[in-house]
Specification:
48% of the residues lie in helices and 0% in strands. The protein is mostly helical and 168 residues long. It holds the Pfam family Bac_globin. GO terms for molecular function: heme binding; metal ion binding; oxygen binding; oxygen carrier activity.
Length: 168
Amino acid sequence: MSEAFPASPSAVPPAAVPPASVPPASVPPASVPLRGSEHGAALGPSFFEQVGGHATFERLVDAFYRGVADDPVLKPMYPEEDLGPAKRRLQLFLEQYWGGPGTYSAERGHPRLRLRHQPFHVNPDARDRWLTHMRRAVDSLELSPLHEETLWDYLQRAAFAMVNTFDD
């Protein structure tokens, strides 16, 4: 009986092993710039600039709060009947986090996200609802895959960090 496969990987001739996927030399590797100093100066265009600046974050937050406005679990967590102030705070925070203006900290101080969310009952259900609305909002932006994944990774980590109870 003959074997269809070699007994070990070392028995495969080198020419039969496919090369690792390497992008063509004409395509620069995708990257999100790092900060160049502790004061936040980016080494290149910031994520904020790369994705379209203020207008993009405005669209993100508007789409997100359209979902929150009708959510029976999340909507009661907002102290204002009008979600306008909450929308503004989230937009300013996200813009600053991603390399935009520092207006959020200038107006509100250090973000202290967990502390600011402590008064609210943020359980896994609330987190998942928040993520559902945010996922729809992120998808509506039609960002490049790199930018979409970078943004979504942060939003997921932040949402999981805000959970402060496992009670219903």
